[in-house]
Design a protein that fits this description.
Layout lengths: L5 H11 L6 H7 L5 H18 L3 E6 L2 E6 L4 H7 L9 H13 L2 E2 H8 L4 H9 L3 E6 L7 E5 L1 H6 L11 H8 L17
Antiparallel strand pairs: 1-2, 3-5, 4-5
Helix pairs in contact: 1-3, 5-7
Length: about 190
């Protein structure tokens, strides 16, 4: 059997990896190749999937590289996987957004912004590994501070927190679109 190409090796490593792999991690696993060659191989693998219009593609997410299925194929994939995708309650999404945009943040700060107790919601987000405890704030009482995790970035398909929409982008979603006024059409047809 001939020696496999670097592209094939990287593709196989990404296929079996349970999380996005960074160039650093790939360099550790492949000391016989330099970082520049690994970066070029990643681009070639990604381009190969795009060119073929394959059912999977290589994406840069959560600071690393991961093979993912095409979104358009979801209806077919759900036939195989009987479970439903994770759902988030409005309170969980609101709390998660506050943590994502304001991190590092304490429970008290989240509760002040939401106006309600968030203990159960924070516990749920911790169990789902979407947020983590970053440490304790250096103030009296030493409250725990929270931040988002790599799993958060993976689920929301973000490479880093800079990929979160800005306030201006979110405000444009709320704007009422201006449509051209169309004349009313007569309901009766005259002979």
């Amino acid at each position: 059997m001939p020696t496999p190409s670097l592209n094939a090796i990287i593709e196989a490593l990404l296929f079996v990896a349970d999380a996005p792999m960074t160039v650093d991690r790939l360099s550790e696993l492949l000391p016989e190749y330099d970082r520049a060659a690994i970066r070029i191989a990643l681009q070639e693998v990604r381009d190969g999937y795009e060119t073929r219009h394959a059912g999977i593609h290589l994406v840069e997410v959560a600071g690393g590289w991961q093979l993912r299925t095409e979104t358009a194929l979801m209806p077919y994939l759900t036939r195989l996987v009987k479970g439903k995708p994770p759902r988030f309650s409005p309170s969980a999404l609101e709390t998660l957004a506050i943590v994502a945009y304001r991190q590092p943040i304490t429970r008290q700060e989240v509760e002040y912004l939401r106006g309600v107790d968030t203990g159960a919601v924070l516990k749920s987000l911790l169990e789902r590994r979407l947020i983590k405890m970053l440490g304790k704030k250096d103030i009296p009482g030493r409250p725990i501070i929270y931040g988002t995790t790599r799993e958060f970035l993976e689920i929301f398909n973000l490479n880093d927190l800079k990929g979160l929409p800005t306030l201006r982008e979110m405000q444009t979603l709320d704007e009422i679109p201006v449509f051209e006024v169309q004349e009313e059409l007569p309901l009766k047809v005259e002979p």
